[in-house]
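Quick one before lunch.
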Amino acid sequence: MAILPRLGRRPEAPPAESPDIPGVLKRGGNGEGPSGFDKEALKKGAAEVPISVAGWLEERLGQTPALKHTLFRRVPGHDWTYTLGFAVLIAFMSQAVTGVFLAMYYDPSPTQAYASAAFITNELFLGEFVRGMHRWGSTVMIVLIFLHMAQTFFYGAYKYPREMNWLIGVILVTLTLAMGLTGYLLPFDQRSFWATIVAVNLNGTGPIIGPYLGDFLRGGADFNAITISRFYAIHMLLIPGLMIALIGAHLYLVTKLGTTAPPWVKARKRRELAKEEI
Amino acid sequence: MNKREKERYLREYGMIKDETGHPFFPYTVYKDGIMACVVVGVIILMSILFGAELGPKADPTTTTYTPRPEWYFFFLFELLRVVKPPELVILATIGIPTICLILLILLPFIDRSAERHPLKRPVALVAGITTIGAMAYLTILGAVAGAPTEIELPVAAQYQEGKEVTASAGCLACHQFGENGNSGPGPALTNIGAKLPRQAIERTLLNPTAPMPSYQSLQTQDPEAFDQMVDFLASLK
Ligand code: HEM
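Model of the protoporphyrin IX containing FE complex:
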């Protein structure tokens, strides 16, 4: 936090009475007009963006340690593979948004499901586009989540102290695959219907809980009228709810523990440290 | 990792953060922002290029369907096909995925060494690459194994219709008839008439063992086609 000395320093002083003047105002550099395109100045200015944004926000919101700890925390130098986790998050959010729009027109009843899917695809303005985004978004999310998992695996990020984040991640992969499975039935065309029957039958072969799981998914011993609304409720309420909670925990841990440094980055001071230990 | 290794890790992590680190905003946010645009851009592009196809309406009584999962389940489906003996099918469908899941969950507790560099963790490196390779291989197998709808076995004229019903009923996704169809997860049906009597075949179709779907509804909706199919199967000797 070296570059943000002011942020952490406020003692118990009541902010209402003596509001600190944020850095951006103190510098008073903005009144003098443009001073030409000085690259150095520009760079320096860019480096101060976080400070002035922090100052601006803090002035208006009061002391916000949460903000300081998330937005302005120090993170080790990263390569681009560290953006994969965020990419998964974006794919998930895209699924959530497009899913909400689909839910406005979709009707999860055995008689209307296909008709409503056909209406979305063929008649609704931009309907096919949004359905397409949701369909291909699932593919993109699966690819990204496996890439993210591979990245954390090969970078050894599942090791101390981030084991919990790996565990949450494993549950998230399972839930993401479950989303793919339950969503596949919903358009209720031939492909989705028969693939889902086979998949549910497969689940039913599992030991102990298998038969119950099969019955739970189908809503009975056979594929029947309430199966589709079951899948719909699982697909748009149950699993997303779980996922949002788990993603929240995942991100909380990421900010709390910090992201790893790439394993080949060593501290310069390490040599001295090693000597010290001997 | 023992206590000393843990402490040392945290200490070095702190130093790296001081030496090479940046504030999250704007440095990481800028990279993440670019990545976000790429992700949304790719999704939009795929939607525009490939659209959202909607096949014919689901029809439980149909005689034409191909139980084909979404591509990212191909590796599971293919696992089913690779494992042939019926006693082992449960192992393929439930056993292997469950074992993989448990291994994944246990990973941080199995591999507790302090080393993080992938090249200095040969076991993890090989295991990781092997897993990725196996999943990619199974996915590709699943992608090329089409869903055939033709049976080329020569049959007597009175069984011709039954053959067509069977060919379009999706059995080929799981069974082999002569040269046609996939060699799993179900057994080959080329000589099924010699192995099972007609009633037993009919019983199997009405009350199959999972993962085979039941054809009860075909019987109620179109008993003639159903009987033709059973006759055809019983004639395969
Ligand atoms: C909905 C799914 C997921 C979302 C939205 C998500 C999001 C994120 C984000 C934003 C980060 C921080 C940036 C980064 O290092 O990439 C992160 C880190 C991490 N994730 Fe995920 N993730 C998901 C699934 C997973 C899965 C499936 C695993 C592995 C099984 C996993 C394991 C980890 C680990 C170990 C870290 C710490 C990485 C580090 O410190 O370098 N996550 N995740």
